[in-house]
Design brief:
The chain is built from 24 helices and 18 strands. With 698 residues, the chain is α/β, with parallel strands linked by helices.
């Protein structure tokens, strides 16, 4: 064994003494008696003057008394400590004179030690009792102060409700919210009046209480039908952005998935094992962000597979799919990441495959899991990571249900079949809509099955009928939540009330996708077999080609729609950043400038020489007097070459980036034909427009 190891062993052996620790009654008395005995013995041997010990004892008693007064010790404690010093000093003086080694000296010293220990213990208990009593007095004072404040709040609301609602109430309690944003009153209306009578006066009560904008006084059911909870918000928490929690821990559809927070900072869990959900919100209300928040909760769940239908280019699901499919994110050990959603449909054909698969899975589960249902003694399929729940998130699905288009009608029929038939087998839906209108909420199936409802208002009053969205819930007004991401949420467990949706950022979507990759369940073998090749080959290259094409063209900076033409050379991109297409377009423009006397660039200085008259006008590509959409349209015309292009093709390419319509493009083309920039070839439906540089010789 090395010397170092031996030293460590020696250090760790034996009792460990804490020399910094204070003395208790026993150790203090032992220390005092042994110290007095040692001093007396030494003094007797060395003929020390006995008066010194008495002087030291008096000094110790005085010092402890001064310190005790400074820390506000009780008089009993001061007397005990001073007496201990004086008694010990007196014994030491006596023992030095008569000898410390006699039985009388040793016996009296032991008696003194016991007395000092008992007195120290008694004073310690007394000090503890004093401290506890002082704390209790302080707490009682705080409680009385709070109680006085609560009594004042209760009295104000009793008078206010009596004056405005003509209802007499008794206040059983006032609870302040931990966030400091408001408080709740436990009311008991007199005369058998229920909470909804008070709820209909929510606006008047809020105004009379002079609550800030965005704050409300909302009545909801209490512990029984004769009690009411009145939630009063005093701080407008809806105005501030509420970031998505950084905790990406596991969730379950059986215990609830959080979608946001109430004004009192309580998280709102959503239970979708048997319920469907409806989320409405006009443009600009934060509905897209809400969809991503919903998908984040499903991605974190250990027993949920998410299928997404978004006929608007799949935009709701692409952030959850593309980073994983393109290999942009990896797990910590380098393994590939699974997409955040299990299936994404952006076309009518893919949506039909998905809905057919959902119906087939649900119906097959009814037959294949009969033994499991019998053993569990239930008619609801036991959902778990082994048999996950399938939740279809259908963006603007409510609009599909009321569409008159033939294809949309077929989709609507299948969506309603899923809602109607597959509750017990663990297939549910989350539909979104642009507004809470009679046409959206007119379907009985939606009203009956979609008990989880969210209305993001964003201050929009058109198409936001909260009375239809939350029937029986009075006092809800759009003006109460005029902020993006704010609105009302109601569930079977929680009545409709104000809430704030979490704000989730793109980098969080990528982080959640990576963090939850191993958590996503696999579709059980019974269901996967029923879903067949439509499900098994959902990520095949030909089925996801539209995603990759979108990544290469429309999502690339400076691209022009689906053509893939990059226009960064027209937007002042540096030569170092120019792509081959940019360089080709630049050389092409230089050749035109050299061959034709083009008009001057508006960005050139005033000293630039004027262009020769009658030249080809390319200023639409870079002039300040024209819009970026017009410059991009002319670039598309140039890129079309001798084949030319039509107004419809250009309009389709510009629709996503600029929202340009075909009628606008037709106007541009007519103007270019008139000034000689373009030439029309053909007539009628076969008419094409060719740039002058590619036009055939006449």
């Amino acid at each position: 064994m090395s010397s170092t190891a031996t030293a460590k062993k020696n250090v760790s052996s034996g009792p460990v003494l804490d020399w910094a620790a204070g003395h208790g009654p026993v150790t203090g008395a032992l220390s005092a008696t042994t110290g007095a005995f040692a001093v007396a013995t030494t003094g007797a041997v060395t003929a020390m003057p006995p008066g010194w010990a008495l002087a030291v004892g008096a000094a110790g008693a005085l010092g402890h008394t001064v310190v005790g007064l400074r820390v506000r010790n009780a008089g009993r404690t001061l007397a005990t400590r001073a007496a201990s010093w004086l008694v010990g000093a007196g014994w030491t003086t006596w023992a030095m004179t008569h000898g410390p080694l006699t039985w009388a000296a040793l016996g009296s010293l032991a008696t003194i030690g016991v007395g000092i220990g008992a007195a120290a213990r008694s004073s310690a208990l007394y000090e503890e009792a004093r401290e506890e009593e002082a704390l209790a007095v302080e707490q009682r004072a705080v409680a009385q102060e709070l109680s006085a404040e609560r009594r004042e709040i209760a009295a104000q609301w009793v008078e206010r409700i009596q004056r405005i609602c003509s209802i007499s109430v008794r206040v059983h309690g006032v609870e302040k919210w931990p966030t400091g944003a408001g408080y709740s009153l436990d009311l008991e209306p007199q005369g058998g009046i229920t909470y909804d009578r008070i709820a209909q006066y929510s606006v008047q009560l809020s105004a009379d209480a002079r609550l800030p904008h965005g704050c409300t006084a909302t009545a909801s059911p209490g512990i029984h039908q004769g009690r009411t909870i009145l939630d009063v918000t005093t701080v407008n928490v809806l105005q501030e952005e509420c970031p998505y929690p950084a905790d990406y821990g596991p969730l379950s559809v059986l215990t609830g998935i959080p979608w946001g927070v109430r004004t009192n900072a309580d998280v709102v869990p959503v239970h979708l094992r048997e319920q469907c959900a409806l989320v409405v919100g006009p443009t600009g209300s934060g509905k897209t962000n809400m969809v991503h928040t919903i998908l984040a909760g499903f991605a974190r769940a250990e027993d949920v597979l998410t299928w997404v239908i978004d006929l608007n280019a799949g935009s709701a699901g692409l952030p959850w799919v593309l980073p994983a499919l393109n290999g942009e994110i990896r797990q910590e050990d380098g393994r590939p990441v699974r997409p955040g959603v299990d299936w994404l449909a952006a076309s009518y054909e893919e949506a039909m495959l998905m809905l057919d698969a959902a119906l087939t899975v649900g119906l097959h589960r009814k037959k294949a899991y009969q033994d499991l249902l019998s053993k569990a003694n239930t008619d609801l399929l036991p959902i778990s990571a082994r048999i996950p729940q399938i939740i279809l998130v259908i963006d603007e699905g409510a609009e599909i249900l009321v569409s008159t288009d033939r294809q949309m009608k077929e989709l609507a029929r299948k969506i309603l079949e899923v809602i109607r038939m597959l509750r017990a087998m663990g297939v549910r839906t989350v539909l979104t809509a642009l507004g809470a209108t009679g046409s959206v909420l007119g379907n009985l199936m939606i009203r009956r099955e979609g008990k989880v409802r969210v209305a993001l208002t964003g201050g929009e009053t058109e198409g936001m009928d909260l009375g239809k969205m939350f029937p029986g819930r009075r006092g809800l007004r759009v003006e109460q939540a005029p902020y993006k991401g704010a609105g009302f949420m109601g569930t079977p467990e929680s009545p409709a009330a104000l809430f704030k949706a979490w704000r989730i950022l793109p980098n969080q979507i990528r982080d959640i996708t990576a963090a939850t990759s191993d958590r996503h369940p696999r579709l059980d073998d019974v269901s996967a077999k029923a879903a067949g090749p439509a499900y098994a080959r959902r990520w095949d290259a030909e089925r996801t080609a539209w995603m990759r094409n979108l990544t290469e063209t429309e999502n690339s900076p400076g691209t022009a729609g689906a053509t893939g033409l990059r226009l960064s050379a027209l937007s002042g991109q540096s030569p170092e950043q120019a792509t081959p297409e940019d360089e080709m377009l630049r050389r092409f423009r230089e050749e035109i400038d050299a061959q034709f006397a083009t008009t001057p660039d508006p960005h050139t200085g005033a000293d630039a020489p004027p262009a020769a008259p009658g030249g080809l006008n390319l200023s639409a590509l870079r002039g300040e007097q024209d819009s970026p959409a017009q410059r991009e349209a002319l670039a598309l015309l140039l890129a079309a070459g001798t084949e030319g292009t039509g107004a419809s093709a250009i309009a389709r390419a510009l629709a996503d980036t600029h929202g340009t319509t075909r009628q606008t493009v037709v106007g541009w083309l007519k103007a270019w034909v008139k000034d000689g920039t373009a030439v029309r070839v053909g007539e009628g439906t076969k008419a094409r427009y060719v740039h002058r540089t590619h036009a055939p010789e006449s």
